[in-house]
Design a protein that fits this description.
disordered N terminus, mainly alpha, 75% helix, 17 helices, globular
């Protein structure tokens, strides 16, 4: 992508090699700390819940587990010793907690990257899949699929979620682009808020008219990591991985767009191409993440601001930090939801909202968010 256009080389910020070395020396250890925190939280996610399982059993089970085989749609018991059939702890880890942890890692990374790309490409500090109509478009499309086509699984949701997310993003941009000034950050936010309200109203009307759809949809709508099997994880994982890799290559384009369209063009950036690729990446990430876990708010809104506090305005660092910090928040929230409501649990979207809102307010008070 970038080598074909040659754009990133022309828009690279001017910096001495010494300064780049100092920045790398300062920020690279932070990324490694985030990776370490993710490994620790993943182990806690496998061990903690209504039934606490020892670390030794978790490590033994994960060590003998054929993850690729299970994600391809085969039984999780295939290839394991017969003694595991009667071992409840190992069955809980394999059938419930491994899929849950993988969904948390993939969905968290996708939402963090999507929020960071949206804020960069729109130069809007409030840009978020939940605010710009992407999540609500995906939700409406899933409700229509449940109501009129009888779709009832993640593998069925995913294509309708993609279509709804893309339709929501296109409509918001088209409405905001009316007028001489084009799609300014303020007009994008207003168009997104208006369309989100319209999509939500239609969704609620369909749920009120169709009780069966409501029963099917309400568990998905609340936003949760539980109740997924590895086959479903395997179906959404390729979309999330491709979208994440593409997003990580957008850093230099987003740096150019942050200077304004005219200056970006003057530096040789293809503004239209950059926005088109960024929009496709956001739809890919948000559509797959929403299909896998339902609408989860505040991750895409809050995490890029936390990452920017650490990295500064350079999107080449903000994107990887967002990709690692978002699953830390999502997995941590899921563990908290399991611990504080034992033997039941609180869905992760509720916990992220409770944690994310005060964090976002604190960030607003500390930093001028309009400086994007």
């Amino acid at each position: 992508m970038s080598p074909a256009t040659g754009t990133p080389e022309r828009v690279r910020p001017v910096a001495s090699s010494g300064r780049r070395t100092r920045v790398t020396t300062r920020l690279l250890p932070g990324l490694l700390l985030c990776v370490g925190a993710l490994i620790l939280l993943s182990m806690l996610s496998l061990a903690v819940g209504a039934r606490t399982i020892s670390t030794r059993v978790v490590l033994d089970t994960v060590g003998e587990f054929n993850l690729w085989h299970a994600m391809s749609g085969h039984s999780v018991m295939a290839g394991l010793p017969d003694r595991y059939a009667d071992d409840t702890d190992r069955l809980v880890v394999m059938t419930l907690r491994v899929p849950r942890t993988l969904v948390g890692l993939l969905v968290g990374a996708a939402l963090g990257l999507a929020g960071c790309v949206m804020q960069g490409v729109t130069r809007n500090p409030l840009a978020d899949p939940g605010i710009l109509g992407v999540n609500s478009g995906a939700a409406l499309s899933v409700v229509l699929a449940i109501t009129f086509l009888g779709v009832g699984s993640t593998s069925g949701y995913i294509w309708f979620a993609f279509g709804g997310a893309a339709l929501g993003a296109v409509l918001v941009y088209a409405i905001a682009a009316f007028g001489r000034e084009g799609a300014t950050p303020i007009k994008l936010a207003l168009a997104g808020a208006a369309l989100t309200a319209v999509f939500a109203a239609i969704t609620q009307a369909l749920l009120l008219l169709h009780q069966g759809t409501f029963d099917e949809f309400r568990f998905w709508q609340v936003g949760a990591l539980s109740g997924r099997d590895l086959g479903e994880v395997g179906r959404v994982a390729p979309f999330l991985l491709v979208g994440s890799v593409l997003a990580l290559f957008l850093g230099r384009w987003l740096n150019a767009l942050s200077l304004g369209d005219d200056l970006a063009r003057g530096l040789g950036a293809h503004v239209g191409l950059a926005r088109g690729v960024s929009a496709a990446v956001v739809v890919l990430l948000c559509g797959a993440a929403t299909a896998a876990a339902g609408p989860i708010g505040f991750i895409g809104l809050t995490i890029p601001h936390v990452a920017r506090l650490i990295t500064g305005p350079d999107y080449r660092w903000t994107l990887p930090y967002s990709m690692l910090l978002a699953p830390i928040l999502l997995l941590g929230s899921d563990i908290v939801g399991r611990v504080i409501a034992r033997p039941g649990e609180i869905q992760v979207a509720i916990v992220t909202a409770v944690i994310g809102a005060p964090v976002f307010i604190a960030l607003v008070r500390r930093k001028k968010l309009s400086e994007l």
